[in-house]
Write a structure and sequence with these properties.
The chain is low in regular secondary structure. 9% of the residues lie in helices and 2% in strands.
């Protein structure tokens, strides 16, 4: 029998390979995998400025992620987790965010034109100066949200919860807020021209200097609301509750001042 030849280099290589085979595979980089589309999970990742246009991110987990100036135009984010995410300046035009969790998220100056946010969670979110014309927010939770100077013209917010929200200077011209809850909301200088507010609850809301010309408040609750210098010219106040509402230089539907 031929003698066994000992090769040190070959022996070392065999040992290294044997050890490597027993070690767990190196952990993949979640950011790289997310960008490549291999995963939908990337909480806390820095994805600022990247484009995910028309990407299917249904159920994605991006909670706490930095998505500033990212492009999600026409993307599918149904049921996505975006709580605490940074989305300032992000492009979410026509994006589907139905039932998404955006609790406490920052969306200052974000683009949400024609976005679908039906039943989304936006409690405490900061949407200051966001552009949301024709956006859908049916039954969405916007309690305590910051919506100052937001463009929500022709938006649909039926039965939305806007309790305690800041809507100072917000444009809600021709928006649909039937049955919405706006208890204690700050609506100073808010534009409500031709807005549909049938059966809405605005108890204790501050509508000082709001422009509500032609708004429909039929059956709405404006009890304890502040109507200082509010313009209600041609507004429909039929069956509207006005118990303890505060009037001061208020323009009434018939043009008289109260």
């Amino acid at each position: 029998m031929a003698a066994f030849a000992y090769h040190p280099i070959r022996f070392v290589l065999v040992v290294v390979l044997a050890i490597a085979a027993q070690l767990p595979a190196a952990q993949a980089d979640p950011r790289s995998d997310f960008v490549a589309g291999a995963t939908k999970t990337c909480p806390g990742c820095d994805l600022s400025g990247l484009s995910f246009k028309r990407r299917d991110l249904t159920g994605a987990d991006l909670s706490g992620a930095n998505l500033k100036d990212a492009n999600f135009h026409d993307a599918k984010l149904t049921g996505a987790r975006l709580s605490g995410a940074e989305l300032s300046g992000a492009n979410l035009n026509k994006a589907t965010l139905a039932r998404a969790d955006l609790t406490g998220a920052t969306l200052r100056g974000a683009l949400l034109y024609a976005a679908n946010l039906d039943q989304a969670k936006l409690a405490g979110a900061d949407l200051t100066e966001a552009l949301m014309g024709t956006a859908r927010l049916t039954r969405s939770d916007l309690s305590g949200a910051k919506l100052a100077d937001v463009d929500l013209r022709k938006g649909r917010l039926a039965e939305a919860n806007l309790t305690g929200a800041d809507l100072t200077g917000t444009a809600l011209d021709l928006a649909f807020l039937r049955g919405a809850r706006l208890n204690g909301a700050a609506m100073i200088e808010t534009r409500l021209i031709g807005t549909e507010l049938v059966d809405a609850v605005l108890a204790g809301a501050d509508l000082s200097e709001a422009d509500a010309r032609g708004a429909n408040f039929r059956g709405a609750d404006l009890s304890r609301a502040k109507l200082n210098k509010t313009n209600l010219l041609r507004a429909n106040l039929y069956e509207t509750r006005l118990d303890d509402a505060i009037f001061a230089d208020t323009t009434m539907p018939d043009g008289t001042t109260r």
